[in-house]
């Protein structure tokens, strides 16, 4: 198995290099800048890994750079501008494709644009294989089995610790600032639209005495969950204090002056809790909780596992949501050794899984 990493020179790309190296998976490092690619190979201790240079405006070069690999992990954000060319080239090269995108409109565009192309090429495309979307989407599928028919699914993200965002994440936030300000897409009555009011303004975290204020946030799960769960309403929320910060743009110059991303120490002290709440049409409730540390390290683990499974186990060709491509329980359980725990509970039959 050989996996190409596009955007291998970036902060997230280097974490994916480390993860593939840890799994002894053969890799090809691809990016637009030869010097930065070489530096990434050296700092990651992977000087012998194959390296190819290809820009996103050169389709033939990109296809040639991917050809012969089994899958592509795309870490080159902002995806809204750079992503579609990489998806198109991966499909043309006959490679399965996953990416670390969190940009909601780009993710929806991948489903809307590339489904037929991927199907004809016999490859599987799974966008948004990041720390939030994969576990949230898989757990939503498990919750739906408990409370179907499903009225609503709410996904809420809470991250604490001093890690902050990488420069790449800040650039992606800047590229999608309108969505961050207005809450982006919600899903309601069979379609995705902007401007759908949130049903919830607060969420109570496990073990908390008081609810936490939340606001709409354009998370990837809103795009993927309705593809496999028949549901009337899906919304995504974030801690209100964090939401206010994300909606305040900073300039490209300020972003350029910041460190590449959180230090290893800061990543270790960061904690995330993602809640997935499902309500059935009859009022039954079920909750999924995902907890872990280090959002960028977790994204590297999840993207690597997502690509590896497409190659090793196969999936239907086309553009798929995580729960359409992977067995939810098996994938979620594989994350435990990496410090990502999960539970699914409902008030009537309080069972839990890890
Ligand atoms: N939960 C989530 O939503 C989540 C989690 C993790 C990561 N992410 C996303 O992952 C992305 C990567 O983050 P990062 O911190 O690794 O960013 P980064 O350090 O800025 O790295 C970006 C990488 O993409 C390449 N790149 C950027 N624009 C390009 C273009 N137009 N053409 C070709 N290559 C291009 C860069 O190449 P050069 O080195 O040549 O500049 C670099 O390799 C971001 O979009 C971030 O939002 C999302």
Automatic annotation (TrEMBL):
Residues 3-126 form the Saccharopine dehydrogenase NADP binding domain. SUPFAM superfamilies: NAD(P)-binding Rossmann-fold domains. PANTHER family: SACCHAROPINE DEHYDROGENASE (PTHR43781:SF1). This is Saccharopine dehydrogenase NADP-binding domain-containing protein. It comes from Streptomyces smyrnaeus.
């Amino acid at each position: 198995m050989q996996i190409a990493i596009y955007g291998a020179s970036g902060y997230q790309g280097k974490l994916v290099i480390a993860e593939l190296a840890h799994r002894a998976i053969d890799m090809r490092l691809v990016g637009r800048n030869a010097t930065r690619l070489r530096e990434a190979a050296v700092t990651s201790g992977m000087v012998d890994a194959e390296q190819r240079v290809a820009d996103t405006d050169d389709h033939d070069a990109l296809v040639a750079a991917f050809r012969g690999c089994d899958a592509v992990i795309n870490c080159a954000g902002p995806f809204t501008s750079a992503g579609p060319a990489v998806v198109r080239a991966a499909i043309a090269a006959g490679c399965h494709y996953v990416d670390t995108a969190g940009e909601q409109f780009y993710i929806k565009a991948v489903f809307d644009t590339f489904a037929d192309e991927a199907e004809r090429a016999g490859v599987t495309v799974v966008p948004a294989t990041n720390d939030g979307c994969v576990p949230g989407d898989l757990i939503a599928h498990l919750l739906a089995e408990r409370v179907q028919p499903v009225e609503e699914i709410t996904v809420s993200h809470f991250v604490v610790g001093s890690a902050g965002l990488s420069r790449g994440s800040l650039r992606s936030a800047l590229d999608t600032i309108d969505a961050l300000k207005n809450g982006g897409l919600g899903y309601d009555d069979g379609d995705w639209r902007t401007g759908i009011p949130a049903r919830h303004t607060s969420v109570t975290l496990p073990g908390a005495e008081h609810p936490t204020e939340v606001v709409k946030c354009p998370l990837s799960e809103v795009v993927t969950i309705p593809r496999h769960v028949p549901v009337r309403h899906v919304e995504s929320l974030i801690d209100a204090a964090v939401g206010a910060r994300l909606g305040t743009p900073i300039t490209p110059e300020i972003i350029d002056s910041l460190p590449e991303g959180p230090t290893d120490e800061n990543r270790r002290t960061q904690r995330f809790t993602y809640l997935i709440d499902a309500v059935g049409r009859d009022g039954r409730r079920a909750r999924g909780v995902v907890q872990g540390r280090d959002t960028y390290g977790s994204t590297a683990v999840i993207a690597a596992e997502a690509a590896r499974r497409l190659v090793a186990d196969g999936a239907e060709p086309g553009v798929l949501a995580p729960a359409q491509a992977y067995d939810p329980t098996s994938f979620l359980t594989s994350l435990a050794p990496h410090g990502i725990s999960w539970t699914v509970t409902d008030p009537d039959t309080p069972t839990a899984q890890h």
